[in-house]
Amino acid sequence: MTPHPGDLLSAYADGELSALERAAIDDHLGTCLTCRRELAATTEAKSWVTGLPEVLPPFGFYERMLLDPSGGRARRRTWATRIGVAGLAATASIWLGVLALSGLDSQHPSGVPALNSLVSLHDQTSHVPATDEEAALDRAARLGLPSSIGDYALADVISRGRSDQAVYLEGNDALSMFLYQRYEIDPSELPDGTEYRTFDGRPVWIVPSSDGPMLVTQIGPNALVMIGSDAQSAMAGDVDPHTPGRSLGDRLEGAGEGLLQAFGMG
Amino acid sequence: MPTWEDIARDHGRFLYTVAYRLTGNHDDAQDLVQEVLLRVRRGLATFTPGSLEGWLSRITTNAFLDDVRKRKRRPLEVVPDLPEALVGVDADPEAALAAQRLPDDVHDALRALPPDFRAPLVLCDVVGLDYAEIASALDIPPGTVRSRIHRGRALLRKALTA
User: Fold this and answer.
1) How far from A85 is each of A74, A77, A103, A180, CA to CA, in Å?
2) What is the ipTM for the molecules in this complex?
């Protein structure tokens, strides 16, 4: 009997062998049950992967990147204008960064969100289960928000015009992330008792509240307010156990920088 | 010559599928596609007519592996030795045929493969590149492509028939 072909069996299944090589393996397979079974097993494993279905991106993923199919610098302004007019709540750090840097919309709000009202919203909504989990996950993906933060799983995303609240739950503990699009934090308007710190190189303000310290930070052109007992851990630590070393700030900011550079705006 | 917008519009679903199968999750797939479109935009001037999807697959895989290295994951993880025969002598062929592999199970098993085994398998069985194209895309010898594909399939079988 000729030697077992080993990994040549995958090449055989993939049609990668020369006629001579194929004939040699055919000759061996004619006398070797073990290799015939191994070829069947290899072919079956190949079929599992080739049989995987096409995967669709989240709704609107490419539309947010395309907007206008015509060419040139004029397109950038059209994109930016459309973003401003439509108020798209797309992956915030990408689109709103483009808009801000294009100079077309320099009148974005600045200051500090109504933090006391956010505490109330957090208390009212943080334990209400989502009516449509799939829609919540889709909305979070479009905003660039993770589906989990450490042990906290996304429970709901509530949109309120220019701001969105993502609620994460871990048992009875809740974490709310309020994302304000095109919002510039004015540190001088933060309340007394605010402590300034840096997390992962980003400026963060810790604001005392009745519900524990709130975390206020600027991520690109957008403002983020986090309320919940683990807000600081979430900001500093890994967002997804499958991607260690990647903080929430990275997650929200990093994806957008590449496209800004692509348009010469980075 | 296509524009990057044409590519995003006409090949977006293909790109996303490859990115998803490489990264294993939607969050990272979106990031990978965005990075790919950036590289596409930069590289379009050097694109020579040929297999566009092959070119896109190479860019996607390289971006994926660049990110893997950046995250300091070991590019080649230690895998256990495998027995020579993958199928037991007493295997019941009818039972094997009847066993349906759910796509989610296959995807999870694929995601669990070390990146250096997952990438050639995705390029071969999801994208449909031949070994020479895969070798060029990954900058590895064709013999290495062959052995990694074979070993990757063996690992999938081990995961899905355990």
Assistant:
1) 16, 12, 14, 17
2) 0.80
